[in-house]
Amino acid sequence: MPGKAKAQKHTAAELNAKANAAKMAHGGAQGGAAGKDLRKAESVKVMLSCKICGQPNFSGIIDIRQHYDSKHPKATIDEAAYAAMKDAAKESTKENMEQVKAKKAAIPMNSKRIF
């Protein structure tokens, strides 16, 4: 005779991970749904992109220089233009962080999710 128990379809670890991911997706870590936007905005860094190929996510001129050496060896790098681009990106990041701080101050610290 076969066993009478139902076969287990998911492990406890899978179920706990899924429940935790759902909780975090609704802003369960801190601050509710508005807290989720804050956590995303706080992780933003100053990033540059290549002017020739458009490849994004260079954190500084050293990274851009390495990119030019490997991908565009015949082209010359205009470090002054990239320095200006980085300064402009710093300003926009600074403004973004100020907005994040204002939103963070508006969130009550003892907020609870109500079902």
SSE order and pairing:
Elements: H1 12-25, H2 32-42, H3 61-71, H4 79-106
Helix pairs in contact: 2-4
Task: Please describe the structure with a list of short key phrases separated by commas or semicolons.
0% strand; 56% helix; single chain; 115 residues; 4 helices; mainly alpha
User: What Rg, in angstroms, do the CA atoms define?
Assistant: 23 Å
What percent of residues adopt helix (DSSP H or I)? Answer: 55-70%
Amino- and carboxy-terminal Cα gap: 45 Å
Quickly count the domains. Answer: 2
Mean pLDDT: 77
Strand segment count: 0
What best-fitting shape do the alpha-carbon axes yield? flat
Order of helical and strand elements = HHHH
Largest sheet: none
In percent, how much strand structure appears in the residues? under 5%
Number of helices: 4
Task: Tell me what the structure shows.
This protein has 115 residues and is an all-alpha fold. The protein folds into 2 domains: 31 residues, no CATH class; 64 residues. 56% of the residues lie in helices and 0% in strands. The model has no long low-confidence stretch (mean pLDDT 77).
Summarize the structure.
With 115 residues, the chain is mainly α.
